[in-house]
Amino acid sequence: MYKKGQGLPWQVIIIGIIALLVLVVVFVIFKNSSTNFSKELKTQEDTREDVAVELQKIFGEERETIEVPATSRSTLI
Predict the structure, then answer these.
(1) Integer CA distances (angstroms), 41 to 25, 26, 36, 47, in order
(2) Between vectors from CA 5 to CA 22 and to CA 16, what angle results, nearest 5°?
(3) pTM of the model as a whole
(4) 14-47, pLDDT tens digit by residue?
């Protein structure tokens, strides 16, 4: 005799598969976004270094850089 309620219903299995697919898609989206962000950050860093080199050529002396503490950075934004 078959007892109702034994095992997992098909609906639960299908919902689990759909949830897994959604998680994979979200992971891929965030992975691509973070890769693009890191590339953009590297480009900006290279540009900043190029500007520093050009300023050093113009002024002919090495300028002292001022580091802004991490606590002050958040208030600037």
Answers:
(1) 24, 22, 9, 10
(2) 5
(3) 0.46
(4) 999 999 999 999 999 888 888 878 888 888 888 8
